[in-house]
Amino acid sequence: MRVSLKDVAAHAGVSIKTVSNVVNNYQHVTPAMRERVQRSIDVLGYRPNLAARHLRKGRTGIIALALPELGNPYFAELAAAVIDAAAAHEYIVLLDHTGGYREQEVLVSQGFRARVIDGLILSPIELEAEDLRDRAENVPLVLLGERDYDLPYDHIAIDNVAAARAAVRHLVELGRREVAFIGARRGRSEPAQLRVRGWREELTAAGLPADDGLVAATDGWGHADGADAMRRILESGRRPDAVFAYNDPMAIGAMRVLFEWGLRVPEDIAVVGFDDVVEGHFGAVTLTSVSPDKEAIGRLAVESVLERLGGNEVSEPHRVWADYRLVERESTLGRAAAADGRG
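Above: the chain sequence. Below: its structure as tokens.
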């Protein structure tokens, strides 16, 4: 049978209210009383009924997280960060997969799960501002990613232009002069556009040509897309001395093609990715990558939802820039330099 607050109170010899105060971490409980009640909780194996607790507040205890690609390592790691952040506030996360299709993003944003969720965290790809402007659903909405919406919704993002410039600057400082960009998405994709812009701005600032012949567009962002983009550049007769990829899977796909062509990384061609996913840490050549603070993004998104649930008015968009850093590894430094501690 399920252990109740009453059972814990009887075992500890205290009131039910005292047990409730301990379970809810109220500050006015003395350390000795907290220890006494916690001992009974541990002995009896009491677990709070979170569903009942949320229902008493008129909530479900569920936050929805809608992502475009669950198979993408970045989004998988981001989902883990959101789930961990939500768990710290005794919330669970319902995952939705939109595929990056506008109709699915509209469906999610308009609240088709509104009866079962308290808030929504959405990472849109194709969603337009007009799709959100007349949003009738009052479930709090927090946006992730780089689409710029001038609307009264909290928005968590990183500065993609600055991050891309940091990646290219690293390559230039290493003496690379012909830097290709792979992953300029065919069709609209603001993150890709922003990263191409950062690539272009940094090369221009360094007095180097931003050669459009070294920009490879793709339909997707996976390993095969990166491999295909790298292969097309090589087959065109071009030999860049560095590659900046839209994300890590594309960078890893590109490195496979370089290996097949007998080109060494980084001796012949240095490679930088984006997102710093775990896969890039363990290849035969570890991957230099722009590392967004995924834990901070998850925490800020959850905190934004909970803040709105607390009744705060949203009069202006609340845009928060999460941090990032460039993690230097073997794909640009070489094994010896990376082993010396620069990566």
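Residues 160-292+326-342 form a domain with the Rossmann fold fold (CATH 3.40.50.2300).
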